[in-house]
C-alpha cells in the first residue's frame, strides 16, 4: 500500500477485550456498535436483539411477565457473553437499563465500556416516532429525561470512554471511537 493513504494513517486497533456500548435509549448503541464491530472485523452482539430472538418482542415481555422478568433475561444475556474466564473481543451493545443490574456492573469491569452521551434534542425525533420501548409509553420525552437523569451517574461511573454522539454521523463516530480506543491501548501498553 502506498505511504500516506487513508488506510495507512488509520489506527491499526485490534481489540483484546469486549467493547461494551452503554447509554440512554436511542443514542445509537445498536447502530454504532454494529458498525464498530464491522470495521474492526469482530462479532457484534446486542442484548435486546438476543432477547427478542429468543423470547419475542420486548413490549410483549414487559406486558406478559413484567420489567423484573425482562431484567433477568437481560442480565443472563450479558452474562452469556461476559461471564467467562477469557471473554472474546466482541462488540456488545446493551439495552439502556442493563447497567442497573449489580452483576452486570461487576462483569463490565473486564470490558472497555463506552458511554454514548447525547442530549434529549438528539434523540427527540427518534423516541417520538418509535413505539417499541415500553418505558417510554405516554410522554416519551419526559420519560427519557427522567430515566436518563437517574442512569447517567451509573453510565459515567462504569465508563472507560465517554463519546458525545450528538452532532456526528455513525461512520464519523466509529472513526472517532477507534482513534480513542487505539490511543488508550497504546497508553496501556507503554505504562510502566
Ligand atoms: N449518529 C447518528 N446519526 C443519525 N441517526 C442515528 C445516529 N445514531 C443512531 N441513529 C438512529 O437512531 C435510532 C436509534 O438508534 P439505536 O437503535 O442504535 O439506539 P439504541 O441506543 O440502541 O436504543 P435502545 O436503547 O432502544 O436499544 C436508529 O434509527 C438509528 O439509525
Ligand atoms: O432503557 C431501558 O430500560 C430499556 C431500553 C431498551 O433498549 C430495552 O432494553 C427496553 O425497552 C428497556
Ligand atoms: Mg439498541
Automatic annotation (TrEMBL):
Binding site for ATP: 26-31, 133
Binding site for Mg(2+): 30
Primary subcellular site in the record, as a coarse category: cytoplasm
InterPro entries listed in its UniProt record: P-loop_NTPase (IPR027417), Shikimate/glucono_kinase (IPR031322), Shikimate_kinase/TSH1 (IPR000623), Shikimate_kinase_CS (IPR023000)
Cellular localisation: Cytoplasm
Annotated keywords: Amino-acid biosynthesis, Aromatic amino acid biosynthesis, ATP-binding, Cytoplasm, Kinase, Magnesium, Metal-binding, Nucleotide-binding, Transferase
UniProt pathway annotation: Metabolic intermediate biosynthesis; chorismate biosynthesis; chorismate from D-erythrose 4-phosphate and phosphoenolpyruvate: step 5/7
Comment on bound cofactor: Binds 1 Mg(2+) ion per subunit.
One example GO MF annotation: kinase activity
Reaction equations catalysed: shikimate + ATP = 3-phosphoshikimate + ADP + H(+)
Superkingdom classification of source: Bacteria
SUPFAM superfamilies, per database record: P-loop containing nucleoside triphosphate hydrolases (SSF52540)
Cofactors, names only: Mg(2+)
EC number: 2.7.1.71
Residues that hold substrate according to the record: 48, 71, 96, 151
Entry function: Catalyzes the specific phosphorylation of the 3-hydroxyl group of shikimic acid using ATP as a cosubstrate.
Subunit record text: Monomer.
UniProt similarity note: Belongs to the shikimate kinase family.
Protein name (database record): Shikimate kinase
UniProt source species: Arthrobacter silviterrae
Gene: aroK
Amino acid at each position: 500500500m502506498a505511504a500516506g493513504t487513508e488506510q495507512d494513517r488509520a489506527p491499526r486497533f485490534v481489540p483484546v477485550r469486549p467493547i461494551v456500548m452503554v447509554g440512554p435509549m436511542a443514542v445509537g448503541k445498536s447502530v454504532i456498535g454494529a458498525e464498530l464491530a464491522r470495521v474492526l472485523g469482530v462479532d457484534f452482539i446486542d442484548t435486546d436483539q438476543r432477547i427478542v430472538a429468543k423470547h419475542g418482542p420486548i413490549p410483549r415481555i414487559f406486558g406478559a411477565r413484567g420489567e423484573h422478568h425482562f431484567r433477568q433475561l437481560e442480565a443472563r444475556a450479558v452474562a452469556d457473553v461476559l461471564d467467562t474466564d477469557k471473554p472474546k473481543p466482541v462488540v456488545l451493545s446493551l439495552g439502556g437499563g442493563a447497567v442497573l443490574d449489580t452483576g452486570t456492573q461487576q462483569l463490565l469491569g473486564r470490558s472497555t465500556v463506552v458511554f454514548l452521551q447525547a442530549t434529549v434534542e438528539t434523540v427527540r425525533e427518534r423516541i417520538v416516532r418509535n413505539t417499541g420501548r415500553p418505558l417510554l409509553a405516554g410522554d416519551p420525552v419526559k420519560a427519557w429525561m427522567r430515566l436518563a437523569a437517574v442512569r447517567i451517574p451509573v453510565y459515567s461511573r462504569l465508563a472507560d470512554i465517554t463519546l458525545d454522539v450528538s452532532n456526528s454521523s455513525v461512520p464519523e463516530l466509529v472513526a472517532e471511537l477507534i482513534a480513542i480506543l487505539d490511543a488508550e491501548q497504546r497508553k496501556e501498553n507503554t505504562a510502566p
